[in-house]
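Lecture 7, part B: from sequences to assemblies.

Below are the input chains for today's worked example.
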Amino acid sequence: MRLTAFTDVSLRLVMRLAVAGEGELLTTRTAAAMLAVPYTHMAKAVARLAEMGLVETRRGRGGGLLLTEAGRRSSVGAIVREIEGSGDLAGCEDDPPCPLRAACRLRGALAQAREAFYASLDEVTVESLVSPPARQVLVVLREDGSPA
Amino acid sequence: MRLTAFTDVSLRLVMRLAVAGEGELLTTRTAAAMLAVPYTHMAKAVARLAEMGLVETRRGRGGGLLLTEAGRRSSVGAIVREIEGSGDLAGCEDDPPCPLRAACRLRGALAQAREAFYASLDEVTVESLVSPPARQVLVVLREDGSPA
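Predicted structure of the full complex, as structure tokens:
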């Protein structure tokens, strides 16, 4: 069981932005390098998080990425729920689709279990993720992804 | 968020075997065709489920696959827990690994959320998955994966 890479990248970014110092505006490129993810993945995550109102993108010289107040207060559950969406947890509609899909009881059971997964993450806020010792690791990240 | 294909195939097989009629012994090849999965995937799932004591494989003429009593009584949670294992839900140790992994609080939160996911499936038994109307769909599956 894995989260999508998209959710993974999004959460890494939110965590890093949550510890940004006053006036520290990371660019998408810098954040990608720091968090060891491809630039194109990071750019998509930035666009999605901005759409969700969690990240603000300031353009121009001295521009960069900022976690919004909503982003800071958000629960991890809310972010994961929104980004992962409600697709099937198994290959019900893959090609070829599962022959059981018309009357499968597992499908509903899996959806309910995912709800329990999200509910558990609803208790976790972005702020709580970046308290020490995580904060120190996040703050000192360099652009090559190594600690300073 | 997706289960691995391996778990998906394993659960399809367990469900189909749970409705097998008296003396009906499916072969791995027949089960693969019925459930629309590649033969090699099905063969691996059979081996794993046999190892777990959930499926019995009878060799020789008239041989085939049987759900054991333990398989019938098993919860979906127990099966998924065993097959999915306890690897990370995000790319913590991928190549390149996540630079946050040393002090990441998300990792623990995700592991706890997965435990809630499994616990939800602990309430679901294999038997309950194959009660009507799922039973009818399962029973009439043909080898091309279509209903009869």
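Note for the exam: The mean pLDDT of chain B is 91. Keep this in mind when comparing with the next example.
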